[in-house]
Structure formats: structure tokens, C-alpha cells
Amino acid sequence: MEQLDMGITIIGCGSATPETLFDNQDMSQIVATSDEWIRTRTGIKTRHLASEDESLSECATQAAEKALAMAGITARELDLIILATSTPDDLFGSASQIQSRLGASRAVSFDLTAACSGFVFGLVTAAQFIRTGLYQNVLIIGADFLSRWVDWTNRSTCVLFGDGAGAVVCQGTYQQDRLLGFELRSDGSKNACLNLIYQGQCKSLNDEVSISQGCYQPLTMRGKEIYRFVMEKVPEVVEKALFRANLTSEQIDWLILHQANQRIINAVAQRLKIPQEKTIGNLAHYGNTSAASIPLALDEAVRLGKIQSEDIVAISGFGAGLSWGAVIFQWGR
Q1: List 13, 116, 158, 193, catalytic entry
Q2: Is 258 known to be catalytic?
Q3: Is the domain defined by 7-179 classed in CATH 3.40.47.10?
Q4: How many C-beta neighbours within 10 Å does residue 14 have?
Q5: How many angstroms from the chain centroid is the CA of residue 180?
Q6: 261 included as an active-site residue
Q7: Which of 108, 117, 222, 291 could staple 142 via S-S, CB 3.0–4.6 A?
Q8: Domain 180-189+220-330 falls under CATH 3.40.47.10
């Protein structure tokens, strides 16, 4: 008997954000800026910020529970949990905390760090486990609390970021494989363009042995270089993913880009010749939520009835590393 290949389908999504809203007027009280300055340069109006007693694992768990509910499976049916984050509650990883909170006792769990590309990288990673037949039900979460690491005196960066989480449940299927194509890329030579870097000081243990002890410094970004990088690389990586899927941009029903800057989103869509009405975004209300931005936007679009079963969706993440990637998938079972 011929062995059928295992395919992938995304069967549920969910999202969550902290309750605290911080608008541009609030921002103008702490740095020299204004609502007009922020909106015209970024497209952002408000963002959600985690309070001092809110944890990333708690927010991610809320998003995961909503995704599981839509998928119609229980946490105990999960085989694998991938948490894409750069801001875990624990430097050793937070995925296991989420596994415990969910009661997903059968699932193995781990963190994956690829900054704002994290959800895209996580989705592709999940697909490999499913396609080999090793796992059947996989939860992928993109979650970041970058408010923890923003320099709140630097208006070029602090106005950009918000906190949140988004999740999807993927399932193996012997029917149509709905993950149609992908492309992932990295370029470490441009790492300095976007950093959240460790900085230590020398600590002598004895006359012969010294070590470094310190902490991570606030996020830094070279905005103009990032913009040039995105304009060159993101349309290209989407086109390569489309080629692998044997599709053209005209066949895309929806484009969801990492929600970094409205100017970037508009320019990339234009280069891909995808009309604005096919581009999904919620940057104005959430800001840049890093690894959470794509699944958060996806979840809102699905729950609003924009994305329907059988629709073809292109997603692309890009950010620190530098890393970037794209996935083409068909929504629905």
C-alpha cells in the first residue's frame, strides 16, 4: 500500500493583550513627541503595555486557550508547544510554564528566538515535526513584552512597541496540505542594525580568573538601515515562497506582514502588487508586538470574518538577527 504524505492544516487561532492602553498623548508626557508625529511616521495610535505584575507566560496562555477552543481540541491532545519570543519571563525559557498553565501534560515544549520573525520561523519548525509524522497537534505561540527592554527616553524606539501574544494550532492531515510554501533567511553581518545586547563588566574571581557579569541593555535600532533592508529583502522572500507554492501574487487573498511601520507595510504591498484592500493590519491599535504581531493580526481577521475557509494567506516576518521569512498557507481545515 502506498504511504501517504502527512500535510499541515491550521485549525485554530487566538490572541491576547495586556489591559493597559497607552496612547500617543500618554507618550508625549514622557518624551518630546506628539500624536501627529507618531501617527504620520509610524501609523501607530495606541499600544498595550504589560503592568509590573503581568507575565508573558500568562498572556501567551490566554492566547493559546482561545486557539485551542477554536480548534476544538484540548490541551492534553497537544504533542508540541513552540513559544516564539525574545522576552521570556525566564531566560532559560517560558514555554514549559505555558505547558503547565494549559495542563498540556503530553506536550514537549521549547522556546524559539528569532525576534520579529519568530512566529514565521516557529510555524515552519512546527511543520517539519508534523510532516515527518512525529507529532499530530502542535501549538505555536508568538509573544513578546518588549516594553521590558525599551529605552523610554528614546523617542525613536519607545513609540514603536507594544506587548501581546498570538497563537495558532496546527494539525497533521492526510488530506490537502495547506502549508503551500515557505522561505526563511538570516544575515548576521547586519546584526548591529537591531540589538538587545548583553553588556557585562569584569569580575575577578581570583588573581588568574576573571568573568563577565551584567545585564541586557535597552533595545537599539538603526531605523534607516532597517527600512532599506526590508524594502530589498521582504518582497523577494515573499516572491520566493510564492514560487515554492506555485502561485503568483495575484492569487493571494490576504497579505499579513509583521506590523512594524505602516509606511513599510504599504511600500512592501505595493512592490508585490497586492492591493491595499487585501492587506491586513492592526498596527494602529497595538504597535509593534514583535513575534506576536502576525498571529495577533491573523486572529483578529479570522474573528471579524475577513479571512474565510479556503482563502490563501501570505505572511512575512522580519527583524533582528537580521532574520526574515515568508509562509504561504490556505486557511481552514
Answers
A1: 116
A2: yes
A3: yes
A4: 27
A5: 19
A6: no
A7: 291
A8: yes
Per-run averaged pLDDT (10 residues), the chain, 333 residues: 75 98 96 95 97 97 98 98 97 97 98 97 98 96 97 94 98 94 96 91 93 92 92 96 97 97 95 96 97 98 96 97 97 86
CA–CA distance, 81 with 71 (Å, rounded to integer): 15
Q: What is the DSSP letter of 274?
A: -
Residue of 48, 59, 158, 258 with catalytic role: 258
Q: Which three cell numbers stand for residue 284?
A: 494602529
Question: What is the pTM assigned to this prediction?
Answer: 0.95
Query: With the C-alpha atoms ordered 234, 240, 244, 247, is the resulting torsion angle positive or negative?
Result: positive
48 is catalytic: no
| Residue 282 CB-half CA count within 13 A | 23
